[in-house]
Amino acid sequence: MDDSSETGDSGDFVRSLARGLAVLKAFDQDTPAMTLSDVARKTNLSRAAAGRFLKTLVALDYASFDGRDYRLRPRVLELGMAYFSSHSFIDIANPILKAAADRAKEPCSMAVLDGPDIVYVVRHTAERMMSISITIGKRYPAHYTSLGWVLLGGLDDHELDRVLAGVELRQVTPHTVTDRARLRQVIVQGRREGFCAAESQLETGILSIAVPVRDRAGTTIAAINMGVPSSRHDRESLQRDLLPVLRKAASEIEFALSKRL
Predict the structure, then answer these.
(1) 149-186: per-residue pLDDT in tens?
(2) Is 81 within the bounds of a domain?
(3) Cβ distance 149 to 187 under 8 Å?
């Protein structure tokens, strides 16, 4: 039996690759070490299939096995670096966002849109600490965040409606926007005004404000934001103190990007 028959591959879709990636993605901050049974359960694979993928990852030095638990090895970082090295705006944004974080004394982040989610690609913290721990590669549903609202606002209306129709609107906090029509209104208003501000969407007491980063064609390729506790800022001070810093940073990134491409 050939490999495509065994794995159920058809056409241009290689199911074995998809399953192998699912095994890689099963390891995260909450489960950095897992047994074979853990991986099989988390990926909905049989123990035999999960075992084959894990042994392959070990053989290629992407994972280690101590006789009980599997763990990812540093070589996995090579997979992510291919993305970062092919996106010049990330290299450009790093020092600019660090300067913005230092200037505002608040954390500054950049994210890109991946389907219905945002993925953090740059993160610089200030001296002050945040209650939300965010790392590079962290994902959140776009419809819960100011970054996501800005990125969704960069879509055309048809694509925006398609994404919003497919997301689950859960009441994470008492302030979470769960009405689809209201959410769309917030996003479209942000598109028009050039920024989005969110309050207590994922965590009570956290405010954030975000602006788009565009390429030379005017397409939104990323968004940058600052997230702060309500003990330090309110909506008025977000726009007065932080929005100008973000807009300056976005302008600097866009200018530098236009010179490099």
Answers:
(1) 999 999 999 999 999 999 999 999 999 999 999 999 99
(2) no
(3) yes
